[in-house]
Write a structure and sequence with these properties.
Length: 106
């Protein structure tokens, strides 16, 4: 039997290949509609907690959904880079994140 981390990596690559074939049937905008739906749900949960001053529980669920979606997207970006170049450069990955976030800060 293989170690858990090896099975996880193989599963992620299999999932990535499946998503590549699914994404070929979706619009070329690069967006996955289901992820936009999960983002919307997470925002709704967090807003409901803030609007009701905590009387409606569930804000933690919105934060959890956000982290799951973020982790998924980051993993897919890293798998795409590995598939394209054969390796992953964390320096380039973080540089792209900074370039993407900086315009929002100005």
């Amino acid at each position: 039997s293989q170690p858990n981390h090896v099975r996880l990596i193989k599963w992620l690559f299999d999932r990535y290949r499946t998503l590549q074939s699914v994404n070929q049937t979706q619009p070329k905008s690069g967006k996955i509609l289901e992820i936009d739906g999960a983002r919307a749900l997470s925002i709704i949960f967090v807003l409901l907690v803030h609007i009701t001053y905590g009387r409606i529980p569930g804000g933690f669920l919105g934060v959890d959904i956000f982290f799951v979606v973020s982790g998924y997207l980051i993993t897919m970006l890293l798998l795409q880079e590995h598939a394209a170049y054969g390796s992953i450069s964390l320096r380039n990955f973080y540089a792209r994140r900074v370039v993407r976030i900086l315009p929002a800060l100005s």
